[in-house]
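Notes to self after the call with IL:
- keep both proteins in one doc
- input above output, always
- annotate only the second one for now

Protein 1:
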Amino acid sequence: MPKKKRIRIQALSSFSNVIDDPSRFKGTWNERVFQNDHPITLEVGCGKGEYSLALARRFPERNFIGIDLKGARLFIAAQNALDLQADNIVFVRIHAEKIADVFSKNEVEEIWIPFPDPYPKKARKRLTSTKYIQLYRQILKSDAGIHLKTDDEQLFRFTIETCKHENCIIHEMIPDLYQQGLSDELLHIQTTYEKRHLDEGKKIKYVWFSV
């Protein structure tokens, strides 16, 4: 492991907005972490936290949690949030498949999944696979929304088919956001990955559904 990455991962424990042992807060995130009763939005696979941090700045009346397994990326996310004095967002270093160990039923009101790894040869690992849909059901409120943004055509179609198979409600699906026009200002938020994909001429796709 490169020295810089190792230093960043080790430094995570010193950040006030990075939660150690998140399972101890299961069912009590509002009371013990945020100390309010605001709705919680979760970004799964948050990377550098660009999407969740942008949302947190726009919606100070909501709480945001970014989760990712890669500590070096979370270091950047946490540092940026501290620099911007965003006190309604925290970060957790866990694998997405552990979310049911960290959150209780009805504890999360919304999930964003911007530009996840499409896993072209490992469908089960995709963050919109049946495995994950079933995990989301364990932590989401009944009318909660899940938002996927991707440049990957296979993942886009896979998500739609999985939603149908799992009897999810698809509220909106857009195969080319920038051709159709962005109806929601939240879709204007662009991560580093999205900007790169747009520069490469790729189409950005969006699905909003509930489980």
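Protein 2 (the one to annotate):
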Amino acid sequence: MGMSARLTGNVLATPTLKHVQTAKGDQPLVQFRVMSAYYRKTDDGKFEQNDDKTFPVDVTVWNERLHDGILKHIKTGASVTITGDVYVNPWVTDAGTAEAGVQISAEQVSLNLARVEQVVYRERRRNEERAGDAEASDIPF
């Protein structure tokens, strides 16, 4: 278990589906980049972006249930909120300078509604179409 974080920002590049080899075999994942958005309130009550706390974050989504929705709805420029485990990935440049990047292994990806013009819901599944136990017909959704 890592350090949990919530990040709000704008998507820098449209998410892509990739496959990686792990100990469990071939695993799909979705990757994209978000520019964190950190704002502070000024003395006059307005908000301004704090450049010292605004930086790009690499997002990786391993949960396959989220992949289709992310690939369909999350595009460059979208405002999103990401929740997941955060970690720092350090490296040394060719010039010998130490650098580091922030990464989040996302558990949740939410589209912020500030720039959304339309929402279309898919049909509810009928009770008899649901997989699961015999009591599924008692569930009201």
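Annotation: Strands lie at 3-22, 25-36, 39-41, 47-49, 56-61, 79-92, 98-111. The helical segments are 64-73.
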